[in-house]
Amino acid sequence: MKKIIAMLLVLMMAFTLVACSDDASQPDVKSEGVMTYAEYVAAPMDSEVVIETYVQAKQSWWEDKATLYTQDKDGAYFVYEAACSEADYEKLTPGTKIRVTGYKGEWAGEVEVMDPTIEILEGNYIAPAVDATAWLGTEELEKHQNEFVSFKGMTVEPSIDAEGNEVAFLYAWDGSGQPGANSDLYFNVSVNGQTYNFTVESYLCSQDTDVYKAVEALQIGDQIDMEGFLYWYEGPNPHITAVSPAK
Amino acid sequence: MRQRIVSLLLLGALVLMLMAGCHGSKGLPAFQIPESFDTQRNYEITFWAKNDTNKTQTMIYEQAIADFQALYPNITVNLRLYTDYSRIYNDVITNISTNTTPNVCITYPDHIATYKTGRNSVVALDALFSDANYGLGGSQLRFDGPTLEQIVPQFLSECVLDGQHYAIPYMRSTEACYINKTYVEKLGYELPEVLTWDFIWEVSEAATAQDEEGTYLINGQKVMIPFIYKSTDNMMIQMLKQRGAGYSTDAGEIALFNDTTEELLYTIASHAKTGAFSTFKISSYPANFLNAGQCIFAIDSTAGATWMGPEAPLIDIPEEELVDFEIAVRTVPQFDTEHPKMISQGPSVCIFNKADPQEVLASWLFAQYLLTNEVQIAYACTEGYVPVTLKAQQSEQYQDYLSRAGEDSDQYYTVKLQATQLLLDNTSNTFVTPVFNGSASLRNAAGQLIENTVKSINRHQTVDAAYIDQLYEDVTSLYHLDQISPSSQSTAQEDLGPLPSTAVLLLAALGIAWSLIIAYAVYSAIKKKHGSH
User: Which of B40, B247, B295, B468 is the most exposed place for a label (fewest CB within 10 A)?
Assistant: First the structure.
């Protein structure tokens, strides 16, 4: 009897593992009329798009409009100001599957779904952070726009504050923000002799978050690893969500 | 039985007390000016300010606070910075309900109209203006502020709501058209002193010519949006004003959805269709396109002048994308060049009421300090702003500043000073839209008409009469304009009038109930006392 129970338990565990691996490794099966990521990429600007994707993070909710970082297993989609009630916004958690209908648009280089509506579906997926360090400064980077990525072993470089001092970060792009005002944080990091400007977007990660506090504690010369979303504004402008000492 | 009657009477009394308590109790009593400012007490006030994401402006606020606190050591000013008026508006609305508004706040009169729906939430300033001790130019002030007559009358009048001043102007700007003159001339046109809409549309259309590979002939690039407008709210409002068409009445009647609006939208649609026109919300900052040689006419605030041009002190695109060209600054395009009309805009300052009149007086002192020459001139020089006081405008320091255009590409950046001069020369040609509860929504709606039209054209939809009808309906619904009417302009601040007769009866019943309760209690006590003997 014990043997039978043990075998049943083993079988159940095996089924569970198979079920889990399905979610993460199987390709996305899109519903009828829904674009694949490749079709979305190929769609012309201002054309209507219908996608199924998974919420990775929520940037903001404002006057019944939600801005979301989303991704499926093939690529990422920035969903800008989707019509969304506050109650529905609360239902959106990392991994939530949604169908998005809107128009493909580009704003300052950022490709996004504009004027979207969303529908919450059954399904869940959280994208792993892909190491994008080697893509910095290359054309490859833009192909991964909006994806959840990591940057490893980068060095904090000085920024210049309002008084002309070298500092590790700035409140607002030019230092015109202030502590406690939930200003965006801007900081410079380098790798392979090239310096890049990264951001903690305060609507995504407010001043109470760990990443915000971690950046406020940075020192010039610190070696750090980061994770975040590969947002674009007139060039790469990653929205960083985690900072830790370089491993 | 007797106990049940007493219980019912008590319950009724409780309900009546709650009802009576509710009647007209929301908010604070109207502010009364104290006879003198109590300098023996300490005050901590909050100042919610807006800057244009400009570190110099932040530093000027901080310096103003430091200087003010040196004059009034018993007043501490806590600065909270915003870069977006709508966020200030939203936060104030949220805080009105909990009586946690800031003391002093940078704002727009449109927004104050909404703030005023909270009972006595915003302080009417007329009595403060004229107070002999602490008013404008008052004898007890520790700084050299302007008198009432030294505030530019037109700017001051913009702060009047319901016949009273609820704000003081802080800075004023208008819109300007920043032009790639090099490209205009390359296309074979001569730039006129006053732009017309016809001229802009014609040149913009000419600039859309492409070769077979889709490269624009004018700039040799794959991108060219000849005409980009930053604030489509202002675009529609100014076009309607210039055409003498309706927008709204002073009383708050909405007149936006008219035939002229429809005609303007068709014109805009036709130029969006050829790629000659776009907007900030659809394409991004006009300055970025202008500086990359991808735009010819960029319309933005004069307070955005420091971003305009390849030599601008503030640049937001990679250096390798900058294109060298000659930049020119003009007023916004006109339908009638003999009678130019342009919007007056810019921040004002309001004061929120508090339970402690001394705290309000401290707030007023600080707000007034923002009108001193030190603050006015310093802040105005950060952008294409104009000081709101004649005292500052006519000062030797400011005149010297204006005379030094082009000495460097920072403090004396030519484009910034040209934009400033443009407003100084056209102050009498500026206008503001009527302010009422809901006027902020109407303003948004005006811009939304253009945004939606351009988006629809980009998405290959048909813009015709049926489309416009639907657009009017959608925008009305989106901004709840059907809930704005002159008849709904009454605010909680208005006198609620005598109590209704039912309430009088209930209050009378309350009095009787309490009398009966007391009588019964006395009767019981006497009876008990007699019984104990």
Answer: B40
Torsion of CA B285, B287, B291, B292, to 10 degrees: 10
Q: What tens digit of pLDDT does each residue of B433-473 get?
A: 999 989 999 999 999 999 999 999 999 999 999 999 999 99
B17 pLDDT tier (thresholds 50, 70, 90)? very low
User: Does the structure show a pLDDT above 90 at B208?
Assistant: yes
| DSSP assignment of A14-33 | HHHHHHHHHHHHSPPPPPTT
pLDDT band at B24 (very low <50, low <70, confident <90, very high): very low
CB contacts of B58 in chain A (<8 Å) are 162, 175-178
Residue type, B530: H
How high is the pLDDT of residue B251? 87
A124, A139, A158 — which closes off a domain?
A124
CA gap B506, B20 in Å, rounded: 9
**What distance in Å separates residue A192's CA from the closest CA in chain B?**
20
Whether residues B282 and A107 touch (CB distance < 8 A) is answered with yes
What confidence tier does A9 reach under pLDDT thresholds 50, 70, 90? low
Per CATH, is B175-343+433-488 categorized as 3.40.50.1820? Answer: no
The C-alpha atoms of residue B426 and residue B423 are separated, in whole angstroms, by 5
Within 10 Å of residue A217's Cβ, how many Cβ atoms?
A: 11
Residues B331, B425: Cα–Cα separation, whole Å: 10
Tally of domains within chain A: 2
- pLDDT for the residue B266: 98
User: A112 is in which domain, residue-wise?
Assistant: 37-124
What is the model's pLDDT at position B530? 63
The rounded distance, in Å, linking the Cα atoms of B139 and B318 is 54
Contact flag A162-B58 (C-beta cutoff 8 Å): yes
DSSP 8-state assignment for residue B352: B
Q: Name which of B81, B84, B475 to mutate to probe chain A: the one with the most chain A Cβ atoms within 10 A of its Cβ.
A: B81
ipTM: 0.85
Cβ separation A162–B284 shorter than 8 A: no
Q: Identify the CATH number of the domain defined by range B43-172+345-407.
A: 3.40.190.10
* Shortest distance, CA A197 to any CA of chain B (angstroms): 12
Question: Cα–Cα distance between A3 and B123 in angstroms, integer?
Answer: 82
Domain edge (last residue) among A124, A150, A181? A124
Residues A98, A176 within the same domain: no
**What is the average pLDDT value for chain B, to the nearest integer?**
90
Q: Is A212 helix (H, G, I), strand (E, B) or coil?
A: helix
Task: Note whether A116 and A138 are same-domain residues.
Answer: no
Q: Which of A105, A114, A174 sits opposite B53 (nearest CB)?
A: A174
Domain at A134, CATH number: 2.40.50.140
